[in-house]
Amino acid sequence: MKDNNKKKLHVKTGDRVVVIAGKDKGKEPSNVKSVDTKNGRVIVEGRNMVTKAQKPQPQLGIQGGLIQKEASIDSSNVMIICPACEKATKVAHKVIDGKKVRVCKKCGQQLDA
Predict the structure, then answer these.
(1) In terms of CATH architecture, what is 1-81?
(2) In terms of pLDDT, which residue wins out, 8 or 14?
(3) Domain with CATH 2.30.30.30 in the chain
């Protein structure tokens, strides 16, 4: 049986986003590193940093200690920055030339290259 628990998200890997809720709210826009469609979460570069205790793994060359890494954020807590108008915007979907694309709600510019 096929697992269809994937959620449709308004963000994709590589999008420039701003965090609109949580401890990193309002900081400079950053890029999306990865998207988890199963849980509806995204990892944004340099945002939602957590400290993790890492055990040393000499066979892999990993040193132990406390490391800083990005934790995931719910996709509803980020907004896409439109490359044309440089504003945080909601995403609309339109069919252009038989292809469904994302467009900026503020200026109507296409977000998908």
Answers:
(1) Roll (2.30)
(2) 14
(3) 1-81
